[in-house]
Structures are given as C-alpha cells and as structure tokens.
Amino acid sequence: MRIRFAPFLVLALVAAGCATPPARVPLADLGCEARLARVDAAVEKAEVGDAQAARIEGFPYLRVNRFLASFRDEVKEPAAVAAWIDRLARLDAEARTVELANLPPAERRALGQDDPAALAETLDRCRATLAARDAADPARLARLRQAAVVPDAYSAALRALGLYPLTRIAFSNGVDEFEAQTRAVFDTPLDALPVLGTLTRWTPPDGPPWPDAGAVLAASADNPLGIPEPDPEALARLVRAHAPVFEVDVADRSDRIGNPTWPPHGPVGIDAVTPRVFWRTAHTRFGDRVLLQLVYTAWFPERPAREAGDILAGRLDGLVWRVTLAPDGEPLVFDTIHPCGCYHFFIPTARALPRPAPDSDEEWRFMPQRLPRQGPGERVVLRVASATHYLQRVRYEPRAAADGPAYALVPADTLRSLPRADGGRRSMFGPDGLVAGSERGERFLFWPMGIPSAGAMRQWGHHATAFVGRRHFDDVRLMDERFVMRPSSGTAAEGDVLGH
User: Fold this and answer.
1) Of 371, 414, 464, 467, whose Cβ has the fewest other Cβ atoms within 10 Å?
2) Which of 374, 120, 67 is nearest to 243 (CA)?
3) How far is it, in rounded angstroms, from Cα 249 to Cα 272?
4) What is the pLDDT of residues 452-483, one digit of tens each?
5) Above 50 in pLDDT, residue 23?
6) What distance lies between CA 176 and its chain's CA centroid?
7) Residue 72 and residue 135: Cα distance in Å, rounded?
8) Contact, 344 vs 335, CB < 8 A?
9) Would the pTM count as exceeding 0.90?
10) H or E segment and range at residue 183
C-alpha cells in the first residue's frame, strides 16, 4: 500500500509546495503605489487609521478636507494646481505620520522599517514622485478633481429608515425648545446665574494683543491659493492672544478641565489634574477671501447624569471655541460646539451682520448673544455651567483681570498619537473619527436624524452640527452664508439676545 500511494503522496507534497506563499518582497523593492498599499493594509489591520482628512479614491498619497475640496474646480494655473496638490499631500503626510507612530512595533518590523520616521521618509519620496506625475497629466488631474470630496457626515440610509421627513418635525420642536431655554439663560443677569459649586477660572498663557496682526495675515496669504498661514512664531502669538478664559461652575471632578490620556486598561479618559486646552487652525472662505480661524477645545472627564436614565450623560465632554479673524486680524465671529458637534451657537461681533435666514425649519444660525468689537486690552471670558458644560455667557474683560490657574496651550494634533502605559501609542480617535467609550444613550433615539452615534465625541472634520437639515462645523462657506462682514471702521449697536 505504501508503494501504491507513494505517487499520490509526492503529488500532494508538490502541490503544497506550489501553494506556499512566495517570499515577501521588501517594501523598498516595491513601486510607490504598492508601498502605500502595503502600509495601508498594515494600518487597517492594526486599526490605527486616522480619519481627520478623507482619503481620495485612486490617489493613495493624498487626503482632503472640506476646505481644500472647495478649490478642486477653481485651481487652473500650474502654480495653483501645484500648491493645491501640495496641500493635499501634506494632509496625507500628517495622517501617515500619526498612523505610523501608532502602528505596533511588530507591524512596522513586518514592513521592514522599525523606525516610523524612516518609514515616513520612504513614503515622502513616493508622494513627491506621484504628485509630479499627476500634476503633469491632464487626465489624472481631471480624475483628482472629481475624486477630491469629503463624505457627508450624515447617513442617508439612517434618515430613510427613520422616516426623516416625518420625524424631523418632532426634532425641530425639540430644537426650538432648547434654544428658547438657552435664550432665557443668556438673558439672565450674570450675577443671577445659579452656581452649583465654585466658580473656577482657568486662564491662558500671557499673550498681549498684536497690533500688526493684519499685516502678518496679509503677508502670510501671499501664495497661489491666498491662504493665510502665519509662520510658527507669529501663529503662536495669535493663538495666545485670542485664547479665552474658561470660567466654570465646578461642583465635582467632572467639571475640571483636563488632559486626555490612555489608562493601562479601558478607553481614553481625562486627567483632571493637568489643565490643558488644545488648539488648532482652520480656514473659511468669505467672499473671495480666505480667513484664518483659531479653534480651542477644553476637555472634561464626563457629563454626569442629572437623573436616572439621562440619555445625554456619558464619559468625556468638552467645549470647542472658535475665533474667525477678519483680514485685519480682529475677531469677526465666535462660534462654539461641544466635541459631539452638538449645541452650535454663533456669537457675532459688531463686525458681522446676520444675513436673513432662509424660510425653512432647518437649523440655520442660533445666536443667543452678540458682542461689540473686542478692545485691544480685552480677553474673552466663557461662563460654563456645571455638569452639562453648556455655555451660559460670553463677555470681555481687561487682560489684567485674567486671574486663576493657567492652562497649557497644546496643539490639538497631539491627540492623534498619545502615549500608552504599555509603551505604545494610540490616537484618542478611532478610524471612524469617534472617541470609543464616549457613546451616549441619545444615539438610540436620535438616529433617524442621520447622525451615526449622536452624542459621541468626534475628531475634527466629523462634526455634524444640525439634527434638522445638514450642517458641518467645517463647512467652508458656513460664515459667509450667514453673515456680512463690516469694514474695520464700521460700528453697530450691541444686541443682547437675538434669535435666528
């Protein structure tokens, strides 16, 4: 029998040998697109993808945000095309830097590079090669223009299943009720606002006003796309100058501004001992101008339940404060959300006049307060409620009055790669742009509005800010569609409380 079956055994061994995967080709020996594909596969397997900017189908070395997507049909001259592609490439380089840093060492070694910086340098060379190729190829460039879009943060499928045209009516009534309650709070004299604990102030590092900010912004916008991009030193001065004071009603640990960290076990949490505020820049298009925006985020450990079954309660909470600067460097409009994208308030200065709202029940522009023009010796103070962390009032005060413990200003991009107790690194945000563990019970009721996991904390670029209608915090024409900019010499009377 051994003799009879020997030939079959030999054939089986030969077949097994043919089925053995060939030796893995070293990353350095692959073409650029194959290198990128292998790295992407490792990142996906390890679940460390960064979702801040959207990938562009067919162009794995580029990523896009809503701001840069707005230029896709406008850039015509070679210099503008090259500048646009360069910025798309920069978004990809930033994302891959954090993805490679967060990739487990074993996965990096499997790619043939244990050093994430060396691996990033390899991909940088590929990125430059592919960018030069595509900029010179009209057909490839046309495909890039078509593909450079950011997916909507709303789910059409959820809205269809939830019978959105009908259920939106009840949600619209709920939004109106919340806005009426908020107006009443903003209408209450400051000293009559209830205090559940102790008013505690966190102040930014000292940053005096900057009389030459307009000249700096103008000079930094001398590029093919007209995007103001101050150098690091100038930007640091601007960030310090416009950072707000947080005046929080602190009843317990949940109301203390903290620092996101990864514990040895469990999801990311907030260290409430170390006060930090995380800043980033953004841009908006206003008429034919590009305006610089400064965005500040304070994180709280949780939103505690106020009663049994509180569907808005959960781990992690925060407040996002954005300053849109006019071309001369003066604040034009302030606006704010929570990191879930909820509670979007606009606080215009006298430099911004509201445009008429469309005749619709969609959430358009909730303005609980207006402010006069900010004086050169003044800081913004944000009054924040206990537990809910709702904004209750915005005011100016002299910089000399900004007392209280100081918070550190930290670039928001550091949250994309935080150290872990095991020596590795991990983003605060998942590959879907959500913060795991920050889910809210409201997601089980609010899903018909089309926002996946409503109430969960989100990464920049993923903030849907309206339940009724469609609106993103980073919509490129958000301010332009809602306000008219007055010239710097304009004046306007201050209004206390305004509606839509």
Assistant:
1) 414
2) 374
3) 15
4) 999 999 999 999 999 999 999 999 999 999 99
5) no
6) 26
7) 13
8) yes
9) yes
10) helix 164-187
pLDDT of 490 over the 80 cut: no
Q: Structure tokens of 18?
A: 């043919």
For 188-327, strand residue ranges (E) read 198-202, 245-250, 259-261, 269-271, 276-286, 289-303, 314-325
Residue 367, SS3 per DSSP: coil
Angle, CA of 118, 123 and 129, to the nearest 5°: 135
pLDDT confidence tier of residue 21, bands split at 50, 70 and 90: very low
Residue pair 68/148 in contact by the 8 Å Cβ criterion: yes
**DSSP secondary structure letter of residue 25:** P
DSSP class of residue 374 equals P
Give me 306's structure tokens: 């106020």
Tell me the C-alpha distance between 280 and 293, whole Å. Answer: 8
487 sits in which H/E element: none
| Three-state secondary structure call for residue 21 | coil
**Residue appearing with tokens 């990128």:** 36
Helix (DSSP H) and strand (DSSP E) numbers for the chain: 12, 18
Distance from C-alpha of 446 to C-alpha of 252, rounded to nearest angstrom: 29
CB 239 within 8 A of CB 208: no
What residues have CB less than 8 Å from 342, skipping those under 6 apart?
454, 455, 465
Arithmetic mean of pLDDT, 361-386? 94
Segment holding 280, helix H or strand E = strand 276-286
Portion of the chain with pLDDT greater than 70, in percent: 91
116 — pLDDT class (breaks 50, 70, 90): confident
- Measured in degrees and rounded to the nearest 5, phi and psi for residue 59 equal -135, 75
Residue ranges of domains in the chain: 26-147, 156-224+231-485
Closest by CA to 433, choosing from 484, 473, 488, is 473
Q: What is the pLDDT of residue 18?
A: 44
> Looking at residue 115, what is its pLDDT?
83
The pLDDT of residue 16: 43
| pLDDT (tens digit per residue) in 171-188 | 999 999 999 999 999 999
Count CB-CB contacts under 10 A for residue 127. 24
